[in-house]
């Protein structure tokens, strides 16, 4: 039940979703609107399929990748009846709000992590060094700052390996479907280094943790001011698109106490507050878990699976921000709910079918059971339909995106 149930909808503080033009923003807007919270969406690209939603009170076009976002928020605040709650839905939004928090904190409620935590989480070089110092298990990691270092790493590292950008909030990498590039040999590593090195002083090369997509686990959580968890929710991937280095297309909630333990250990070491997400991969042979990446201060693609499983992750943040009683539904019940991005999962299933690892029957059976959809909604159908229409050329492609195709890599 919404805080102050006797209040009318218009009397509740708004939620301002920064980055409505994306899956995370759309899911966040839908979740909050379903709880009676009035939502305003800010979008850099108002033509994005997610902006076809009808759950927002209004959608405003804003350059959310620059300080213009802060200017827009300062102009928006006086027009609202109550102090609204900010929900940044992508890394650059978190970073901008954090760096300009003195300008916004008198105007809006927020639950951003402290500035040091934000900067640490966004800079992967600093973060992986922090993880080493605190005994957080990560894959063998090299920081490459020159061609000579790249050649040395190419001689020393075990293949396959992964090349990553150093900054989570770099929009030049954020727009790619690949978060990292899996490379099978030294020549591929050096070619990609030459292509990507103009973008950053240091690139990250990590050894590949063996195991299929289904060995990737995540924990979404919300922490109070003392880094105590008010909500935790564990899920694992079943498939992703592109396979191996892409984004989840099908996930299922599950119980894994080790994942919760490692997540809490990480975020307590960071003195974290607010929304936090950790992705870990389990190595089948040894049973060891390795931290792949954290996200802080924002919803993730799999925040919605917690809500579908009856765990009020984002609504807890909203209530905490406005000082309302927290919802009771904050404990995972392990209902087996699934989360599916139908278009991506169709692409992933085609890839595995062509490889002989998945039949049509296998795919249909994997979708059985209670589920929630990333974009699809009978009450709000236009975002899914618009995404499908925009993606038809990609759906008709015969081959999966190849991370070794350097034409797909970011250029200067």
Key terms:
single chain, 412 residues, alpha/beta, Rossmann fold, Dna Ligase, domain 1, D-amino Acid Aminotransferase, Chain A, domain 1, 3 domains, 7-stranded mixed beta sheet, 4-stranded parallel beta sheet, 15 helices, 15 strands, 34% helix, globular, disordered C terminus
Overview of the molecule:
The chain has 412 residues and is of the alpha/beta class. The chain has three domains: 100 residues, Rossmann fold (3-Layer(aba) Sandwich), CATH 3.40.50.720; 69 residues, ATP-grasp fold, A domain (Dna Ligase, domain 1), CATH 3.30.1490; 183 residues, D-amino Acid Aminotransferase, Chain A, domain 1, CATH 3.30.470.20. Helices cover 34% and strands 20% of the residues. It is built from 15 helices and 15 strands. It has a seven-stranded mixed sheet with strand order 13-12-9-10-11-14-15. Strand 9 and strand 10 form a beta hairpin. The radius of gyration is 21 Å and the shape is globular. The protein starts with 14 loop residues before the first strand and ends in a 17-residue tail after the last helix. The C terminus is likely disordered.
